[in-house]
Automatic annotation (TrEMBL), chain A:
GO CC entries: cytoplasm
Name of one Pfam family that matches: cobW
Superkingdom of this protein's organism: Bacteria
Taxonomic classification: Bacteria, Pseudomonadati, Pseudomonadota, Alphaproteobacteria, Hyphomicrobiales
Gene Ontology molecular function terms on file: GTP binding; GTPase activity; nickel cation binding
Subunit details: Homodimer. UreD, UreF and UreG form a complex that acts as a GTP-hydrolysis-dependent molecular chaperone, activating the urease apoprotein by helping to assemble the nickel containing metallocenter of UreC. The UreE protein probably delivers the nickel.
Protein name: Urease accessory protein UreG
GO process annotations (BP): urea catabolic process
Family assignment from sequence similarity: Belongs to the SIMIBI class G3E GTPase family. UreG subfamily.
Chain sites annotated for binding GTP: 21-28
Keywords: Chaperone, Cytoplasm, GTP-binding, Nickel insertion, Nucleotide-binding
From TrEMBL, chain B:
Record domain UreE urease accessory N-terminal: where: 13-78
Protein name per UniProt: Urease accessory protein UreE
Domain of life: Bacteria
Gene designation: ureE
Record organism: Lichenifustis flavocetrariae
Length: 213, 149
């Protein structure tokens, strides 16, 4: 190709993928499943976790042995988690910039939000793509409530699918209603405890964010 | 997939006029339509009007604009086209109503612009979803709905 293109010789910034969702929906469990799956596909990775006033999730991931602990940064919101992923995401932007400075080859940074409510969304200034994690035990009416997190995310993940029969949830109907409220934009089902559905999430990140396929 | 990084120019750049004219003459202009609510993205994948699968990324300090040139070679160019941003223009009848409207718009995290006495809402979803949130203000006559949508 002979076209004018900035790509030649340019260092392209790491892609930034947000993971939000209610408390206990399985965001950290999803991160713990994504890390080995992404590393296994040769993706140079780093992680940022957000907590209210601790570094609990970051410490959990650092201790997991899944990733070099130096590649895990913690942001303490000190307030509602959405304030640092939407209204003023500078703490997270700086954390991501700092990871890119320390690890110049990093291709992908996962940013896990603190647990929040259904109105939680990510700023486009912070993330290139974001997913919202809900779980069947939270109730099959969650998609019908049409929270901005459920509606606007690039990918809705319905986690803990294995619990559906135990909490009286018709999983197929919940999936169908989630697709309906999202006008058929992507909805994937996972059981992070057993690693089910993770390949589909990774595949979407590879295709739509990392442009590998 | 055509991998594109960064904005290489603008369709109105005088220095690119002759080259773009040549490409246009050979029918090589492709438009990449981006909805206004998606314009803030720094990385996305979309197809042009001719079906070219484009994987686009921008530097963190770059902003996509209407008319941005993402690719240019001797017989082909890819130019960004924004759809028109849907707006909802509201005029509060007095300062009290303005405070109420501003309070709601802030709490609902709406994207807004200020235009004199009007608050202009930049819609990211169906207008009915927005209208429902302040239905009481509209019903009470506190807000004049100038209904651009």
């Amino acid at each position: 190709m002979t076209g004018v293109q900035k790509t030649k010789g340019a260092r392209i910034a790491a892609a930034r993928v947000g993971i939000g969702g209610p408390v206990g929906s399985g965001k950290t469990a999803l991160v713990e499943r994504l890390i080995p799956a992404l590393l296994g596909r040769g993706i140079d990775l780093a992680v940022i976790t957000n907590d209210l006033v601790t570094a609990e999730d970051a410490e959990r991931i650092r201790r997991s042995g899944l990733i070099d602990p130096a590649r895990v940064s913690a942001v303490e919101a000190g307030a509602c988690p959405h304030t640092v992923i939407r209204e003023d995401p500078t703490l997270n932007i700086e954390a991501a910039d700092e990871l890119e400075r320390r690890f110049p080859g990093v291709e992908l940074i996962l940013l896990e939000s603190g647990g929040d409510n259904l109105a939680s969304t990510f700023s486009r200034d912070l993330t290139d793509f974001w997913m919202f994690v809900i779980d069947v035990a939270g109730g099959d009416d969650i998609p019908r409530k049409r929270g901005p997190g459920v509606i606007r995310c690039d990918l809705l993940v319905i986690n803990k699918t294995d619990l559906a029969p135990h909490v009286g949830v018709d999983l197929a109907r919940m999936h169908e209603q989630a697709l309906a409220v999202r006008s058929n934009r992507p909805v994937l089902l996972t059981n992070c405890r057993k690693g089910e559905g993770i390949d589909a999430v990774v595949g979407m990140i590879e295709r739509d964010v990392l442009f590998r396929a | 997939m055509l991998r594109l990084h960064g904005i290489v120019g603008h369709e109105a750049d005088a220095g690119l006029h002759d080259r773009l004219h040549h490409v246009e003459h050979h029918g090589g202009i492709e438009f990449l339509f981006v909805p206004p609510e998606e314009a803030g993205r720094k990385r996305f994948r979309r197809a042009t009007d001719r079906g070219t699968d484009c994987a686009v990324s921008l530097d963190r300090d770059e902003d996509l604009i209407d008319g941005a040139l993402l690719w240019l070679e001797h017989d082909r160019a890819i130019i960004v086209r924004f759809g028109q941003q849907a707006l909802w223009r509201l005029r509060p009848i007095n300062a009290t109503a303005a405070l109420k409207l501003g309070w709601h718009a802030g709490n609902l995290h709406w994207r807004v612009r200020f235009e004199g006495e009007c608050l202009v809402i930049l819609l990211d979803g169906p207008p009915a979803d927005y209208r429902a949130r302040i239905a009481h203000l509209l019903a009470e006559g506190d807000i004049v709905d100038l209904a651009d949508v």
